[in-house]
Design brief:
Helix content of chain A: 25-40%
Largest interface: A-B, 66 and 66 residues
Number of helices of chain A: 15
Number of strands of chain A: 31
Strand content of chain A: 25-35%
Oligomer: homodimer
Shape of chain A: globular
Radius of gyration of chain A: 29 Å
Distance between the termini of chain A: 25 Å
């Protein structure tokens, strides 16, 4: 295609509403246009990249036996009422009423819709296992849309769902899908994507992995270790060592106006590790108070807490009339309060903690001695430099990452609630066990840009580049340049190469900055100067190759290079 | 793919909620599943057909220079407020509020979104013409969803939009797109699709065509003639001849309890053509009364009336206090009533019409004499057997059709209201002129089924069939059958043929009725009996071919047949 005929425009200035590289460059390069908060249209280059990513995803899903289906964007509420998620999911689920006042929703994930499609259609154990997938528009009413295509409200997603007759079979398939995901990210140009254990959140199920691309602009924190351990910080086990120390007598101490850990450290002349700190939450359902006790230097991991309680909580508000805030401790708490002890308190002695009385703390607190029947749970955040749950060294690194895909072992949450059954070998009705597997197409595109760009524009891998070759014809009004450039354009297209052809009457600088923004991997520059020497200039966008090649041989040499670069992924 | 592994099931009984063939067969054949009113999921065979249709559409759109883009499903109301359609379009537009209470809508057509994408991106006349298109999910809150995929609420649609600097250029491009549409319908297996002039409805613009597939189950009426004339009945010009007759004296006649044309014919001993009948409407905006006078044998075409008035109307309700219903005529109507005279009254004499007085009519009414300054408009429905606007013979046939595509010359309605401009050669700002072009993918699939089926199932054309070859291995537990069938399956797949392989342990009858429902064009049957003779049975779904072919040669012969059938479209 001729660049002069392509819809879109490119510009130099950084748009004021763009913070991260992919958002800036894909806006400046004419890939995307913002329509509303978290809603984008795609210009032709953006759509072409999305297409190629979708094709790679499709090939990999088909290779593991996936069957493509189509589920609706608009879903009757009745299906989500069956699964219980109509009530359980918060305001990120877009609910609306149709012309008859019936409750409906915009699909943000399609477990209910896929179970609706499959129930009745796989009645015998002989129909299992199977996997179906779709690539379709989804909507999630995200309160914090940001970063261009990284966090949006409307998005194109590949979502796949597998159905099994045993946990073993699910686990086998889960591993195959894990490998297919690694293929997808490698083929799309981000082989450095790592998979980490993750929280299953509103999806349900026990085992889940996220595929994370490590980058400074990521919104998630990952705990990784050189030993190979990796997990989303939300679920990473927090292991601490407590310095051995002797028991002491439990003694009440007057501590006027000493409510924070910092104040208490100063008052008692101790480090924060020697305190038993209280953090207050309330259950969303009934405002019941939850007190979490943990070592003074740690923070509560709210995802772990929510999973432990099996319900949603929020930081406590206005509980001053019930509790002596700033002076809360394990002993003497009022009735009706849920108390959680973090594992960091196990084996500790002689801590300082609140006395549940304004202006007083205890010192000499030894949890195992002073709280009869105490039990510990893991509800603290893992620390940077903390102990690795894998190799047990103090080697954890916290890094940021973008989640580019996720896979979940769902179990029977949806098949059971929605009554999808099959008959096993003995003729007994059973619930199939499900897995689900998602990849956001737009976020993947932006993620590749995030780690494959320079200051001038994206550096697209050949596998997903909007075009394979970009011809710049400098001084195309010159008949020699026009003839050579058109000849090369035709020859490359005849060879099946996707060519973007810039023969506009603009300066070389203008042409090259457009080419940089379009990020096509192979660039060919023709000018009166090079043609005078019988050559054209061949350059790759990643600067690995920069050389003159004979015009006579250019089409075949370029075709060979494109094929070579396609093979790399 | 092996049929036994495919998601879906097929059955014999006609579902009680299905009336038309495509709905019945695509439900019974496991192509679609109803999720809610006018909302469907697609099983793998349905999705595969949709994919092929989309590919054909894409190829034809690309061939006329189309650039694929992506516009959102969820659109901020602000864009539709700019164009005025937020208020102008009725309840078929699904409006909702997002988490912040902002007005939004589900796109049912994307003129606003595409103008938003293009404005600013094509600032110079040199950027024109261009065409962009997308294939994306749409939602139309249709009150009368019916007929399976024929009339739905959620649908996948290809919508294209072209932009031009002159009406001439639009018309040139419109003709190219018209030809591309003919290619699409021919390639999808319905070459008999005809284009008819149509109403532009809520889209705006003056010239529009619908592509109609003539079938008894169509919802639209078309006026066609052997001379080549064709138009949607909504816009077809109604031409009548009036029998010459002399003027008569205008005379008031007492006609007690004689309100209908039938009663009046009997009372006066005349035919209905000799009456001037009144039909009453009210404007939606302010309930103002509109009286349409037309020849007694004709009916009002409400689309023409709406277009003439430039606003919406509805049949009048409770106007008895203002008008003498049943006795309404042109003379003596109250003030404030809009009066329209249909062209069928031009040149008439000596008609009977109401006297605007309960129980009285006039006879001897001659419009041109008795109504000073009378003007006539075309607001009547064309008649079956009526005069063809093309050849002027009494040769019009009214037939029913399904609208499988439409094209519109939009003019500057959207570019002007949304302030999209470009600079012309003289540096003057101008509004681009638009065309738009739609095809519904699912409706097209169902339409093909509607005209390409027998009582046993769909007969898919090779171009869009879910698979190209269907192997039935009868008694696949027989080692010879298994070896031959598996060998053929592998050989065909290696040759790039899409094969559905049925090696289930079911009876031949069961196997064949499933195959009929899946409608794959080429069927190959292997059984101990045929293999004993060294042959397999080759059958096309349309029964054109039914013969034995040598097993040794089967793969190459079948491959050649598939390629031949692919070339036909």
């Amino acid at each position: 295609m001729k660049l002069g005929e392509m819809l879109g425009f490119r510009f130099k200035e950084t748009p004021s509403d763009c913070q991260i590289a992919s958002h800036i460059l894909m806006t400046r390069g004419g890939y995307i246009k913002n329509v509303g908060s978290g809603i984008f249209s795609l210009y032709p280059p953006g759509k072409r990249i999305a297409h190629k990513i979708e094709r790679i995803i499709r090939e990999e899903m088909d290779a593991i036996g996936g069957q493509e289906v189509m589920l609706p964007v608009t879903i009757p509420a009745s299906l989500w009422k069956e699964s219980g998620r109509w009530d359980a999911v918060g305001s990120e689920l877009l609910r609306f009423k149709d012309r008859w006042g019936s409750d409906m929703l915009l699909g943000m994930t399609h477990e209910e819709a896929v179970v609706h499609l499959c129930r009745g259609a796989a009645p015998s154990y002989q129909n299992y296992p199977f996997m179906v997938y779709q690539i379709q528009t989804k909507f999630r009413d995200e309160p914090r849309a940001r970063g261009g295509l990284i966090r949006v409200r409307e998005f194109t997603m590949k979502d796949a769902y597998s159905f099994h007759t045993s946990q073993e079979d699910l686990e086998d398939y889960y591993a195959r899908c894990h490998a297919a995901y690694e293929n997808i990210f490698r083929r799309c140009g981000i082989p450095e994507t790592v998979s980490v254990k993750s929280d299953s959140g509103m999806m349900g199920g026990k085992v889940a992995h996220e595929f994370m691309l490590v980058t400074q602009v990521g919104e998630d924190y990952l705990a990784i270790c050189d030993c190979g351990f990796s997990a989303n910080m939300e679920v990473a086990e927090c292991i601490v060592e407590n310095v051995p120390c002797a028991d002491a007598v439990l003694t009440k101490v007057e501590t006027p106006d000493t409510k924070t850990i910092e104040d208490l450290c100063a008052f008692f002349g101790r480090t924060s590790e020697q305190f038993c700190k209280a953090v207050l939450y309330q259950k969303n359902a009934n405002d019941e108070i939850v007190v979490v006790f943990l070592r003074g230097d740690l923070e509560v991991n709210e995802v772990k807490l929510r999973n432990l309680l099996g319900e949603e909580v929020h930081p406590a508000v206005s509980v001053d009339d019930v509790l002596a805030c700033g002076y809360i401790g394990p002993m003497g708490l009022p009735e009706g309060v849920t108390v959680i002890y973090d594992r960091s308190l196990a084996g500790t002695h002689d801590l300082v903690t609140g006395a549940n009385e304004e202006g007083y703390h205890f010192k000499g607190f030894t949890p195992a001695r002073d709280v009869p029947g105490i039990a510990f749970s893991d509800v603290a955040k893992i620390l940077d430099g903390g102990i690795c749950p894998g190799c047990k060294n103090n080697s954890i690194k916290l890094v940021r990452g973008i989640e580019v895909g996720n896979i979940f072992q769902l179990g029977t949450k949806y098949t059971q609630s929605m009554e999808m059954t099959y008959l096993d070998k003995n003729g007994k009705a059973q619930y199939p066990i499900m897995g689900c597997y998602g990849i956001g197409v737009g976020r993947l595109m932006a993620s590749v840009c995030e780690v494959r760009h320079d200051e001038y524009g994206p550096i697209w891998p050949m596998s997903i580049a909007p075009w394979q070759v970009h011809i710049c014809a400098i001084r195309a009004e010159n008949p020699d340049v026009a003839a050579a450039a058109n000849g090369l354009y035709d020859a490359l297209q005849a060879a099946g190469i996707e060519v973007l052809f810039d023969d506009r009457k603009v300066s070389p600088g203008f042409m090259f900055s457009d080419a940089d923004l379009l990020g096509v991997p192979v660039r060919v520059i023709l000018s009166p100067k090079t043609l005078g020497r019988g050559v054209v200039e061949l350059k790759t966008r990643d600067k690995a190759i920069q050389k003159d090649i004979a015009l006579d041989n250019a089409a075949s040499e370029i075709t060979a290079l494109v094929k070579e670069l396609l093979m790399l992924a």
